[in-house]
Design a protein that fits this description.
Blueprint lengths: L3 E9 L16 H10 L1 H7 L6 E5 L1 H12 L5 H7 L7 H11 L4 H5 L3 H13 L4 H14 L3 H6 L1 H9 L5 H15 L2 H10 L3 E4 L8 H5 L4 H4 L13 H19 L5 E2 L8 H9 L4 E5 H8 L7 E4 L2 E6 L1 H10 L5 H17 L5 E8 L12 H12 L4 E3 L2 H4 L6 E3 L20 H18 L7 H11 L2 H6 L9 H18 L46 E4 L13 E8 L3 E8 L8 E7 L3 E7 L5 E2 L5 E4 L3 E6 L7 E10 L2 E6 L5 E4 L11
Parallel strand pairs: 1-2, 1-8, 1-9, 2-3, 4-5, 5-7, 6-10
Antiparallel strand pairs: 6-7, 11-12, 12-13, 13-18, 14-15, 14-19, 16-17, 17-18, 19-20, 19-21
Helix pairs in contact: 8-11, 19-20, 22-23, 22-25, 23-25
């Protein structure tokens, strides 16, 4: 009997959210998707006898789940969430608030009456009581729990029934219950695979675009006019590392090698396929646009073979309908559309066909009612009752009587537009590639260093696709500056591990929409006494002023120096820093000035007056005051940032995400008096 073989692949992935300097999760999305989606999706499949699916688990996601299980204190969000509300600082509360309303208004906030009440109050008054805030914390977590937890966990059911007036103890217990639940996720996948209910595949370790690592010029195959970055680094060995590490990780968890591999972003090239063949990958997949670019037609309902590896091409209409379109339809209409589309495919040929539905397994469901459960229940039920459909895994379909066609070559591309413009070509994306290349070349010059292996891990992290995704103007997130900072921080960490100072440009955002401070410019010359205290009211009266917390964001909770005053006379440039000076006594303050070159001055943060041979002076008592002779700066317009160093290690950079642009060129001779 002729069959339509339906193959689902649910891709589970999140970026590497761990700050390389603090080793903390800066954003909690791995945790939140774990309690909402990573168990939920295979659980939904497990409830239907005739439904099978393939789940792609990215190794760097599995690693982050393991870190949460082994060291939950590594998550900044959870650490702050556990604190008593009345002990949370203003900055910490700002950090939490940005996240606590990061839930879909229609599908996650409104269905919980008290959560919606708090949302309306905050949007109207920006003011919450301690009980409001405590309820908000609990209800946010409950809104992110999936149906499996809501139906099967007694404690979560109790809190949902209670609805409001939660206690600190209930909040802490909820967090612990959810953390314990994370430990069940991977064992559940292992059980379902051992039951032959699902197939588990993998992706190169940190989710890099392998074709670009193997040959940056491959981007021109599908878009000849693309503007490429100027890079000189050789990333081929890194591509091999990502693949080997993924296969080793899979082996260590599942006691075997995977049959299939989903390349990050569906990105393939001939070189990539050859690499898969070398590592005995049996099958892989990408988007139908890559097929069209390669052979000029969308004949996607068959199996293709390139040398010794099989290829599947996703049905973009069906995949994107689940990802983006069906969320706005009632379940019956959505499922009817899906089934009717499959029926048209089935009727279009006398042969058995394979339909590949491949998409993110985590990001779409918050836009669906009830986390997508109502949709999936109807979808899986209807599929199960169509005798002409057989829902199986990709490895299983290779054993079926499906037409197979040989491919001599493919044009390099991805599952978005069939090209790589999402990750390369835009000036911001290209700048990121160039910084990556320069850092990789620097690291290669240190190959004999004992710390080389430790440092290169941060290169691998920076090669992940997600950083490049958020550069440019094709995607938007309120966290774009955080992704930018994490990318640059991983590159800076390479230098830090090897005891070298990173290039100043890595301190400046690549993302062009980064925040700029409001700069109060100097009104006249100043000549303060350098003694570490406010000697008199007038000495800094005419200075310029900058609030160093201007780019304080959800990634940062404590700024060590919060205010910069600056000014000059005809001979010297003066700086004053206010903040937690006592907390950083005996550390080092490094001042960085950038024009066509970088000039740095390092001064001790000490009560004792510091003077060097060039006339730089500094004293740190209640405030930090510094004098730098103007002849050392060369220019009077420059970019500026500072670094606080403790035991030669970077403690904090200020501004955190940006660089300040200063101008001390104005002549005040007409109004100057000593």
């Amino acid at each position: 009997m002729k069959k339509l073989y339906l193959c689902f692949l649910w891709h589970m992935h999140q970026p590497w959210y761990i700050d390389p300097f603090t080793q903390e999760f800066e954003m909690p999305w791995v945790f939140l998707h774990a309690i909402k989606d990573y168990y939920e999706m295979p659980w939904l499949v497990s409830r239907y006898k005739k439904i099978k699916a393939t789940f792609n688990l990215v190794p760097s996601l599995i690693k982050q789940l393991q870190i949460y299980s082994e060291n939950p204190s590594s998550c900044k969000f959870l650490n702050l969430s556990k604190k008593d509300v009345d002990k949370i600082s203003v900055a910490e509360k700002d950090y939490l608030l940005k996240i606590l309303f990061s839930a879909n208004l229609t599908t996650m906030i409104k269905p919980i009456p008290r959560y919606f009440q708090i949302y309306q109050k905050y949007m109207t008054t920006q003011n919450l009581t301690n009980q409001d805030f405590l309820d908000l914390q609990v209800l946010f977590l409950l809104s992110w729990t999936g149906n499996y937890l809501r139906e099967n966990n007694r404690y979560i059911k109790t809190l949902l029934e209670k609805g409001k007036d939660f206690t600190q103890e209930e909040k802490e217990k909820l967090i612990n219950v959810l953390l314990d639940f994370l430990k069940e996720i991977i064992p559940f996948y292992k059980k379902l695979e051992s039951d032959r209910k699902i197939e588990i595949t993998t992706t190169p370790y940190y989710h890099p675009i392998l074709p670009l690592l193997l040959n940056i010029e491959s981007a021109k195959e599908s878009k000849p006019d693309i503007s490429l970055p100027k890079i000189t680094a050789n990333f081929k060995e890194d591509a091999v590392y990502h693949l080997n590490s993924a296969l080793d990780e899979y082996q260590s968890i599942f006691d075997k090698k995977p049959n299939g591999l989903w390349p990050a972003e569906g990105s393939l090239s001939n070189q990539t396929l050859d690499l898969f063949i070398e590592h005995k990958i049996k099958w892989t997949a990408t988007d139908e646009d890559v097929l069209y670019n390669s052979i000029g037609k969308r004949d996607k309902y068959k199996i293709y073979k390139y040398k010794d590896v099989y290829l599947f091409f996703r049905d973009r209409y069906l995949s994107d309908s689940i990802g983006f379109r069906y969320q706005n339809m009632n379940e019956k209409d959505a499922v009817d559309d899906f089934i009717s589309h499959l029926k048209s495919i089935y009727n279009s040929s006398q042969h058995c066909q394979v339909v590949s539905v491949i998409l993110d397994g985590e990001n779409a469901w918050e836009f669906y009612k009830n986390n997508g459960k109502d949709f999936f229940d109807r979808l899986y039920f209807e599929i199960s009752h169509q005798k002409w459909i057989e829902c199986i895994t990709f490895s299983e379909v290779l054993e079926k009587n499906v037409e197979t066609e040989n491919l001599e070559s493919i044009k390099a591309g991805s599952w978005i537009y069939g090209n790589f413009t999402t990750w390369i070509g835009h000036p911001e994306k290209n700048t990121a590639w160039e910084y990556l290349s320069e850092t990789r070349n620097f690291l290669e010059s240190e190959k004999e260093n004992d710390l080389y292996k430790k440092a290169i891990e941060y290169i691998y992290i920076a090669e992940g696709s997600d950083w490049f995704w958020w550069y440019g103007d094709d995607h938007f997130t309120i966290y774009a500056d955080k992704f930018d900072l994490l990318f640059r921080s991983n590159l800076m960490k390479v230098y830090d591990v090897l005891g070298k100072k990173p290039p100043a440009k890595l301190s400046k955002p690549i993302k062009q929409t980064f925040k700029q401070p409001v700069i109060k410019k100097p009104k006249n010359y100043i000549k303060p006494t350098i003694d570490g205290k406010i000697t008199n009211y007038f000495e800094w009266l005419f200075s310029g002023e900058i609030d160093l917390t201007f780019d304080l964001s959800s990634m940062n909770t404590e700024i060590l120096l919060n205010k910069l005053y600056y000014g000059y006379d005809k001979e010297n440039f003066y700086l004053r820093f206010d903040g937690s000076v006592n907390q950083i006594k005996n550390d080092i303050l490094r001042l960085n000035f950038i024009t066509d070159k970088e000039i740095s001055f390092s001064v001790p943060i000490s009560n004792e007056k510091y003077t060097d041979e060039n006339g730089v002076e500094a004293v740190s008592e209640k405030i930090i005051e510094i004098k730098i002779p103007l002849n050392l700066l060369n220019e009077k317009k420059f970019e500026f940032y500072i670094e606080i160093l403790k035991d030669s290690q970077l403690l904090q950079k200020l501004p955190v995400c940006s660089i300040i642009m200063l101008d001390i060129s104005e002549n005040f001779d007409y109004d100057w008096m000593v």
